Amino acid sequence: CALDQVGAEYVRDIRPGEAVRITERDAESRQALPPAEPRLCIFESIYFARPDSRLEGSSVWGQRRAMGVQLAHEQPVEADLVVGLPDSGTPAAIGYAQESGIPYAEAVVRNRYVGRSFIQPDQELRRSGVKLKFNPLREIIDGKRLIVVDDSIVRGNTTQQVVSMLREAGASEIHMRISSPPLAWPCFYGIDMPSRKELVAASMTVEEIAEMTGAT
Fold first, then answer.
1. Closest CA to 130 of 147, 97, 146, 153
2. Which of 12, 34, 84, 100 is most deeply buried (CB count within 10 A of its CB)?
3. CA-based nearest residue to 64, from 79, 47, 85, 41
4. Looking at residue 156, what DSSP letter applies?
């Protein structure tokens, strides 16, 4: 997407171990490290990358929508509305809605001035960040059975507070659906997940996580 913004032409992806030097006249390439198979971080497709980017030949938005389609097959449930947690949960929610035939609704508004909550270094900052990050549209939610689609559960802070927020807004049922597999192991490449004990899926089953968050 950064190339689109500056009017550049996409040629190809840089290969693993390849070094590209751009000069005034041309681009020079050499294999600086031994060739290897691509090992793209799966969290790019799930959460980090912008939806208008392309990874490994396909759009991130399309990848996330496809996750929602698959989720509708694996975890169907009767409900009135499908709601995506913006922004990275939205394409998966649209895919779920289209595949299930349940209407999609934009029922949660995201504050664009709040950063990504799960990579905040302190627990209190994460909790306050979630409170500031989302605001429900009560007139859409009140009395409805909701399928709420999010991209992932890391520590469980966001999910717990979102379920509580939606119940206060009048939702009669809340069915959480997560488009990524359970995150049970930490990452040491720049994401603030220093230990396994912080990851809720490392010690709890999906059913136990649902009970903890108050969702189904």
1. 153
2. 84
3. 47
4. S
